[in-house]
Amino acid sequence: MVVGESGLGKSTLVNSLFLTDLYTDREIPSSEECIPQTLEIIKNAVDIEERGVKVKLTIVDTPGFGDALDNSDCWKPIAQYIDQQFEQYFRDESGLNRKNIQDNRVHCILYFISPYGHGLRPLDVEFMKAVHDKVNIVPIIAKADTLTPKEVMVMKQRIRDEIEQYGINIYQFPDCDSDEDEEFKQQDLALKNSIPFAVIGSNEMINENVARPIRGRAYPWGVAEVENKVHCDFSMLRNMLIQTHMQDLKDVTQEVHYENYRAQCIQSLTRIGTKDRSSRSKISRQSITELSLLPLAATEKLIQEKDEELRRMQEMLKMMQQQMQQSQGEQSDAL
Amino acid sequence: MSEVVPEPRQKPTVPAKPSCASISMGSQLLGYVGIDTIIEQMRKKTMKTGFDFNIMVVGQSGLGKSTLVNTLFKSQVSRKSSSWNREEKIPKTVEIKAVNHVIEEGGVKMKLTVIDTPGFGDQINNENCCDPIEKYINEQYEKFLKEEVNIARKKRIPDTRVHCCMYFISPTGHSLRPLDVEFMRHLSKVVNIIPVIAKSDTMTVEEKHDFKQRVRKELEINGIEFYPQKEFDEDMEDKAENDKIREMMPFAVVGSDKEYQVNGKRVLGRKTPWGVVEVENLNHCEFGLLRDFLIRSHLQDLKEVTHNIHYETYRAKRLNDNGGLPPVNNPDSEEQHESNL
Fold first, then answer.
1. Segment A140-154, tens digit of pLDDT
2. Summary mean pLDDT of chain A
3. pLDDT at residue B71 greater than cutoff 60
4. Phi, psi dihedrals of residue B313, rounded to the nearest 5°
5. Rounded to a whole number, what is the distance in Å from the CA of B293 to chain A's nearest CA?
6. Ranges for the Septin-type G domain (chain A) (predicted)?
7. Residue B27: phi, psi to the nearest 5?
8. Share of chain A above pLDDT 90, in %
9. Nearest residue to A61 (alpha-carbon basis) of A110, A27, A21
10. Chain A residues touching residue B202 (CB < 8 angstroms)
């Protein structure tokens, strides 16, 4: 998920990260047309395949964040969305068919911090505190070509101090094993010291005045290269996100955030059902029809959901069967 | 009275109106009279009295307001907020801080007042950001008005009115934010607003061009008249000159107080790994244009428009509210203003 005020280069960065054009032909609306009064949540799904490995990438965009005059509670829709995905997963997990669960949970939020301020703004702090227990936050300093290297360092240090001061739990990189080689450890250390990543994004390839075509931004005074480690941390971010830490992000989401959610959920359920603990143990042995007689509101809900699941499964089966028959018919025609 | 009023506006030709067929039209001078020395006399007088200029800077924190003011006046007239310590940081409400400096150049003394507005646009809820600023501006008009209607008034009324308000637009590259529109719409009626695109080294040449077009269109759609206002152009010459300037506004600027060596010269700029952004290079940013416009050609005009138009509007409104009578100097209600009665 990408979150940040409009104009910080979120779409450009997403395109640069995944070398796709998710946002081609994007018209930038004027200030009356755009800036919806409430935040919108837009999902874009892309199937990326590289060397035989397929990844279904879903990017959730949040236009309208922080753009209104009064931004109180503008993070609520986002927190709700994250919770909804957890809830969906929770239901799927408790359902009958667990082989094809679609994992729509948010594995990582890229939070864009404006480079113009002096560190975190009140809105940044509020947002991160609202979601830091639900999802991995990776803070990013956007449009880092505005800052000189010294300013970047000062800003990073300030942001790190403020994150600590406000007690915000951002995504922590796991420590590497002590038996890894020195180079890997150095890289890992460098990675940890670069948070938040200062990035530049670009969709354009620069062809003139450079040795070979590169992605960058051409200014009258020079070319800021996106993939140059001296210029910005874009390559570090990309490596981290896609090559080295993708699985870890998913694991942390599964093991920590999802489990937190699940624990909270079940706690609230068991609180309703503590009176009838004795009858709970009978649920698994009895058949569905008898269960409907039990007055427990929570279990009834679960049962209804399971019924719906069954119905959905059956419908899907029917559809698949039809498709198979169709394709069989086509195959026989072709032959 | 203010020192602005007695100065006649210098124009190369002063056509006398044909309707009043007075004898003075186009009379030939038979010899050198010496009328043109009045300019020298005025110059001496104003050199003695000095000038004052009050500029207000408004914009979100971190947009380089203080740096730009320092660069404009080539001295440390504004304390940068990046040097504040942590407790001083983003104030909970918009504050107004006025700092005075006297800068001197070529024997001319200028009392420059920079009015900073920390906290503007930084809160989560920014709906009432404009109010403290509007209140401050009106308070200055009120002060001046009170002094003017005094029976025994000072020879030279201290002028604390805001002559120019530089509004810093964040270079998002998209369009104006709702906050920008709100602010400029309210305040373009009470003060001269000069919109400026801050930190423009973040945009490439095409992006700058597109952004400017979009901003200008939006300003037009929202009916925001920034300085120089079209309605105050006095004649064709003014209009032509101001039209040219209006085409180029808002200026996309970069500020810096550090010097670097480029091609053997020392220039003010910002050093990045991929090059040095030169502040005074017109290919890099429009700082030079802004400085020339603000200081070298329209400084006096800003003061005049403030006095003749904005202040007069305020005064008319106040007198109207009071039933056509000047506001009474009430010693009990005004604790700040000393009564001269």
1. 998 888 888 888 888
2. 77
3. yes
4. -60, -45
5. 23
6. 1-268
7. -75, 135
8. 1
9. A110
10. 115, 143, 145-146
Report the pLDDT value the prediction gives residue B89, as an integer from 0 to 100: 58
Q: By the 8 A CB rule, do A71 and A124 touch?
A: no
The C-alpha atoms of residue A206 and residue A212 are separated, in whole angstroms, by 8
Residues of chain B positioned with their CB less than 8 A from the CB of A154: 82
**In contact, B141 and B314? CB cutoff 8 Å:** yes
Distance CA B148, CA B140 (A): 12
- The CB-side HSE value for A231 (13 A sphere, CA atoms) comes to 19
Q: B73: pLDDT confidence band, cut at 50, 70 and 90?
A: confident
Q: What is the pLDDT of residue A281?
A: 41
At B300, list the tokens.
Answer: 């006096």
Q: From A145, which residue of chain B is nearest by alpha-carbon distance?
A: B202
**C-beta separation of B55 from B112 below 8 A:** yes
Mutation target to probe the A interface, by most A beta carbons within 10 A, among B202, B277, B278 is B202
Enumerate the residues of chain A whose CB falls inside 8 A of the CB of residue B275. Answer: 219, 221-222
Average pLDDT over residues A80-95: 85
Place of tokens 């991160």: A128
* Cβ–Cβ under 8 Å, residues A61 and A42: yes
**Is there a contact between B229 and B175 (Cβ–Cβ < 8 Å)?**
no
Q: What is the distance between the alpha carbons of residues B136 and A106, in angstroms, rounded to a whole number? A: 47
Q: What angle do CA B54, B57, B62 make, to 5 degrees?
A: 150
- Inter-chain contact A148–B270, Cβ cutoff 8 Å? yes
The reply to whether residue B174 touches residue A6, judged by beta carbons under 8 angstroms, is yes
Distance from CA of B95 to the nearest CA of A (A): 17
Strands B259-262 and B265-272: antiparallel
Residue A121 buriedness (CB in 10 A; 0-12 / 13-18 / 19+): buried
Q: How far apart are CA B273 and CA A224, in angstroms?
A: 8
**Angstrom distance (rounded) from CA B322 to CA B326:** 7
DSSP per-residue string spanning A32-62: TTSS-SS---EEEEEEEEETTEEEEEEEEE-
